[in-house]
Amino acid sequence: MLKRKTSSRDLKPGGVLAKCAKIALLARVLCIYPVVVGWSDLGSISELLLVIVAVAGSTGLLLSWDRLSGFVRRHPSVVAIDILVALMIFGSTSAPHVYMGYLGSTAVLIGLFFPTVGQIALTLLLSCGYLSVAMAYSFQESSLAPTPAAAAASLVLFACLTYVGRVMQRLQAQVDLSLQAAKKSAAEAAQGDERARVARELHDSLVKSLEGISLQAVAMKMRGEAPDSAAAISAAAKQAVQESRELLSDLREAAVPPLCSALERTVEELQALYPVCITLEVEKLPDLPVHLRHATHKIVEEALSNAAQHSGSGAVTCRISRVGGKLHAEVQDYGSGLPRHAQRQNGHFGLTGMRERAEEAGGRLTISSKEGRGTTVVFSVPLGLEGEMNGRSARSHS
What pLDDT, on a 0 to 100 scale, did the predictor assign at position 373? Predict the structure, then answer.
């Protein structure tokens, strides 16, 4: 099976918004095309000039998006002038209905480009201008005049299209936030991997070499070969070994961030990706060993991800506390709950991985769920087993 390779362009911040804006600009140009085709029979020179201005503006922004889009965002007056030009064409053309698509595309662009105040101001300008032209057609008793119902529907359409653009702008902001968080996590993960690699290299080479030197010095002393020198070499080697082990410990500690900050980053990422509000409550905890911090973070991360994606709950609560000499991590949602068959199947929603991590850490994972009443995941591990768990971790790394 072929896998599509994701390029950096696909993940560019603002990329989705840019594509939507370009589609709207292309729609504007296509809406003007019928007027240009029929101009020789029905149009006037002034209309043609205005059409050329409108087409040039849309085409120029479409072709030079990267250079001009920022300028347009900073200067809403540019869009205001464009709206006035469009309304002038709308009022003078013999094919006004074509310009409804043009004005609708402009409404989408307003929602995509500007903050709330700019959206309201420009949408009001667009709507009032449209009403003015419609009333002018009515006073002239023209057959092109829209009915009151059609005019009202057009105003509602403009407002809805602006709102569509506004929603797209908000979604792009969430995507950008998620990309930023993902890049930060990737950078920290890469830094942690590098620290872990350096720690392994030091353990496999430097520490063992120093221990070898120390053993050789002890052997020299036992054989009576330069006992003073042998004692000095042995002491120096032991000191170097101790310092190297402290360095290794520091590197391993730095490779895994503090539990609170790691969970805060996870919450930010999930809230950027899914429409959920996650409340994180972390009590003051004693210093936790690296493997316990890592296991707790991964279990809670999986539980939060499941709740955000599958529960249908708009709110999730995560509590980390110390209860009776145990580390207690609880994730609770208020959604649809796990089906009974899902609770029996270990492979569902990553439950197997969560249980395995809990067992490896010397703790216990419990899941309680009722359909329609939410799910609660609890990870509990005795803090008194830190020494035993440290031994397990050391054996697993050796």
Answer: 82
